[in-house]
Amino acid sequence: MARRLVLKDTTFRDGIQEEGVEACDLGEALRGIQEIDALGVDYHEVGFASADEASMERIKAACKLPLKGKVAAFGRTLPEDVKAILKSGAPVGVLVGKTRLQDVRGALNISPEENLKRVFDSVQRLRQKGLEVIFDAEHFFQACHEDDRRYALQVLQAARKAGAKWIVLCDTNGAMTPAKIKTAIRGVKREIPVQRLGIHTHDDRGRAVVNAEAAWEEGVRLIEGTIGGFGERTGNCNLCVAVPNLLLDHDARGISRDQLSRLAETYFLICDVLNQVPSADMAYVGERAFYSEAGMHESGNRRLPNSYFHVDPAIVGNSPRVGLSDQSGRANLLSKAEQFGIDMPDELLPGIVDAYRKLVDQGEHFGLAEASAYLFLMRQLGLLPDYFTFVSFRVIDEKQAGQPATSEASLRMEVKGKRQLHNGDGDGPVNALDVALRRTLARHYKSLRRVALHDFKVRIVDTGRSTGARVRVLIELTDGEKNWVTVATDDNIIEAARRALFDGYTYKLAVNGTKPVRARR
């Protein structure tokens, strides 16, 4: 039976507890909250009201945003937390309460009866002040299966009788199985007249999403989670996976097609706000979620579109990507050319395939370097202009005791038919080369003045040769709006980096449609 899906996002409360997630500034957080709101989220749990000033400030500021969803402030069943929630001005209060006797006696050091009173009084106090209350039953599933199930149900009853609108059942340590989730929910529905149940799952055993789906199958309507699954330890229920699964596989309603199509964009924006690298492997929204590299698979996709995809990528705002690897064939190259808008004459295809396979034999791999794949095809077809010509370079590294290491690069190039020499200093040889290259090219191509080196990675191609191994260098450049990656391999790491850098700047010129500068006659 179709039911409306109710979502509570906790990215800016649970999500920011993940190790390595940097506390973002208020403006960035508000930008993220608004983006999440556009997905159709009902509740935004944006801070632990009594935790610190930053959390309180974030809650208050979020309340002023023109959101469709409601802002919720989080707290414990303690008078000081209830007071903080009221002070925040949030229309919704989220209270977390203990359901395991071992926690009540061991962690809170109070009697079971006192805990029930705390739960009732806290919920009632917020309700008397006009707030909507969501009660998070901490460790509820563990209480049912490992502690005292009867007492756990008494805690739920106390919250319900005090006026909680939603009772959220929590798999706080992520240890539950779908079967245990279902058994516990059935017991709640048999013994307590509660209509609005929610689920809060953690991913400690990799089951946060599947456990949320199991709860939905038992009639639970509210799903709590975070964008990208961010959260303490191994994270929370990933809404980027759970939401499309519930809509596509479980007949959930309430999120429009237009809203769902914003999912991938939202994920990448939240990663940016939290200063995290997006997971390329994440289902639905990752860059590799609809990536095809094997020639047989791409050949099948060309005959029957999306035949190897579980869903149309556009549904979640993603798009198919075709990679080039040692398994790539004619179909992959044709699809890659189509992706780039390049016309591939049939008579040239065999030669291009052979040229690509020779590069693969040398250790090249365009799977993570779209820019290099584009340049390879353009060069093979004779469509890439000559913007500049490399002549020579020299790099000197210097280290003195008590001083940081420094690098200096000298780069000779030919631009406008004339040889030019520029030097560059940097924190390392690649940085120094980049400085010298940009110093040379920016004088002639204004579009390169905003380009900067964003990342530099090295991989060993043939580990059997130890320190003499061939290396693969990935260079990521940015112009402040878009990033692109190029790759090169060589026995010499600096030469590989030099070639990848040159290709990175060439790509920027090529995609901009820049015409090569010519010498004046």
Structure described in brief:
The protein has about 525 residues and is an alpha/beta fold. Helices cover about 40% and strands about 20% of the residues.
Q: Can you give a write-up of this model?
A:
The protein is an alpha/beta fold and 521 residues long. The protein folds into three domains: 3-273, Alpha-Beta Barrel (TIM Barrel); 291-361, no CATH class; 389-511, Alpha-isopropylmalate synthase LeuA, regulatory domain (Double Stranded RNA Binding Domain, 2-Layer Sandwich). It has helices at 26-37, 53-63, 79-88, 101-108, 112-128, 140-146, 149-162, 178-191, 208-217, 239-249, 257-260, 263-273, 295-303, 330-340, 349-361, 370-380, 429-441, 493-511, and strands spanning 3-4, 6-9, 43-48, 70-76, 92-98, 132-138, 166-171, 197-201, 222-225, 252-253, 291-292, 321-322, 389-398, 406-415, 418-426, 452-460, 471-478, 483-490. The strands form five sheets. An eight-stranded parallel beta barrel has the order 2-3-4-5-6-7-8-9, surrounded by eight helices. Strand 13 and strand 14 (406-415) form a beta hairpin. The radius of gyration is 28 Å and the shape is elongated.
